[in-house]
């Protein structure tokens, strides 16, 4: 059953420039892990911000469980790109993660501990954020996002700070999230074999280039010679 459907989304930052996204349609099924791939400037972050509802499309519709997104925004949470955060802010890991509670209501110890456990950093709860590695910081940011009682998680380039083993560990964490019923949509620059860890791949470059299983998308992109001239 699809939990999020986007139909014909078009979005321009200004009427004077070409649209960042044109007629983008996709379906995210409940309990699946989907990759969103595309080169720099393809519109990945723009699409995620539309799907989260922080920007509105110029044209097109987004529904969550059959209702317009505007009536169901609490079901969708976005983890921003790491570049959007000040990692030197003087805060502990548990302080950061607690901020993820919606409306900043007081989080219970259980919720906090569950989020830290899900991403495997309970032992770092009292550490300062600026004393962590880039990969540990990304896990802390995911734990903060998971404090949100949403069921659709949009992750904007979460693997950018990871070395290959850490990336594999992170993929396992998000796979477990999907297997426990959450819908997870992850933007990435990685067109390599790690795409095989996903149920589905959406390739974007202002329009949807291809969508389907990792193999189907790789085949489609090579048939249009996209990978050769673009990447
Ligand atoms: N605030 C903005 N104002 C004007 N144009 C913008 C703005 N944000 C993004 N753009 C433009 O929209 C297009 C899509 O940008 P976006 O950040 O969504 O791409 P992306 O695929 O996430 O890129 P990257 O992989 O580099 O993060 C780019 O041409 C970008 O320059």
UniProtKB/TrEMBL annotation:
It comes from the Bacteria. Gene3D superfamilies: P-loop containing nucleotide triphosphate hydrolases. Keywords: ATP-binding, Nucleotide-binding, Transport. GO terms for molecular function: ATP binding; ATP hydrolysis activity. InterPro entries: AAA+_ATPase, ABC_transporter-like_ATP-bd, ABC_transporter-like_CS, Metal_Ion_Import_ABC, P-loop_NTPase. Pfam families: ABC_tran (PF00005). Residues 4-230 form the ABC transporter domain. The keyword Nucleotide-binding applies. This is ATPase.
């Amino acid at each position: 059953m699809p939990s999020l459907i986007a139909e014909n989304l078009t979005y321009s930052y200004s009427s004077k420039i070409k649209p960042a996204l044109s007629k983008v349609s996709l379906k995210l099924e409940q309990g699946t892990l989907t990759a969103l791939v595309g080169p720099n400037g393809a519109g990945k972050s723009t699409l995620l911000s539309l799907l989260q509802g922080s920007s509105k499309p110029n044209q097109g519709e987004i529904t969550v469980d059959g209702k317009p997104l505007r009536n169901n925004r609490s079901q969708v949470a976005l983890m921003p790109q790491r570049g959007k955060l000040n990692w030197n802010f003087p805060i502990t890991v548990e302080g950061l993660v607690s901020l993820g509670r919606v409306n900043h209501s007081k989080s219970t110890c259980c919720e906090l501990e569950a989020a830290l456990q899900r991403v495997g950093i309970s032992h770092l709860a009292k550490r300062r954020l600026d004393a962590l590695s880039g990969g540990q910081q990304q896990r802390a940011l995911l734990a903060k996002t998971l404090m949100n009682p949403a069921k659709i998680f949009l992750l904007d380039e979460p693997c950018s700070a990871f070395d290959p083993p850490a990336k594999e560990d992170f993929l396992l964490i998000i796979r477990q999230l999907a297997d426990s019923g959450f819908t997870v949509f992850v933007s990435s620059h990685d067109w390599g074999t790690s795409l095989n860890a996903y149920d589905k791949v959406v390739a974007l470059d202002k329009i949807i280039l291809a969508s389907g299983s990792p193999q189907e998308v790789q085949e489609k992109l090579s048939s249009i010679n996209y990978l050769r001239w673009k990447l």
